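hiii, so i know i said id send this last week but things got crazy w the move. better late than never?? heres the sequnce for the chain we talked about at the cafe, plus the structure i predicted for it. fair warning i was half asleep when i ran it
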Amino acid sequence: MSLQLTACVFALLVCSALAQPACEGKRQCIDTAACVSGKCVCQAPYVWGDGTFACYRQNAVAAELKNDPKLTNFNNETVPFPYPCRYLVTHVRQELKDNDKNVIGNCEFKVHAFNAKAKGKFFTHGFDVAVKITYDEGTVVKMSSRNYGTADNGVYSFMKKGTMGEYLPDGPWGDDDIDYKDAQNGIRVELKENSYNNQLVYDFRRCGVTITFVPYDLTSRREQKSIPGLSVAINCAM
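okay and structure toks below
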């Protein structure tokens, strides 16, 4: 086999390995689900949810914005929300716990989402998060960010603007990275990308909060393999 042919075969194998197979028609399962009899099923410890969008633990509640978009609240009530505006998704205060699950303070956060319109369709374009961590010993940590994204024929891009040291639910946002770490207590707040799920993830586990966002693909549209939208999950028994 020639060197050139070997390279071509290797490239084909790599592309095949990276391709994510469809399960429910054209959709692909997220990494916390598996394709079972043609359906994406959430896998333990994630025991409920939509395996093509978001899976949750038993003690979690979730608010979701999907596709058109439709808003589902923490009581599992769903209403259409096809408007080109910014709106409050949730405002919650939770206990802050350390690695040993001792309560060491509280955390307050506000999440707004905002829609956009293109080619006659409304979609969730991004989300804003403002967080205030108050330790029982008196320390207060604040951070705020605006996060949005685009997708073009399966290629996803995310934009992030952040301000550390300020609780700004309505901005303005600067150029800081949102990344807070309190190693002694096991506290971490981070904003990261999950390329397998095509998601931007806002992770604050010690407060029981995880936010995921998938941009709408303006080119693929109905053929988009990942369901676009926003999920806000709160673990009530972390």
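btw The chain has two domains: 1-58, 59-235. thought thatd interest u
miss u guys!!
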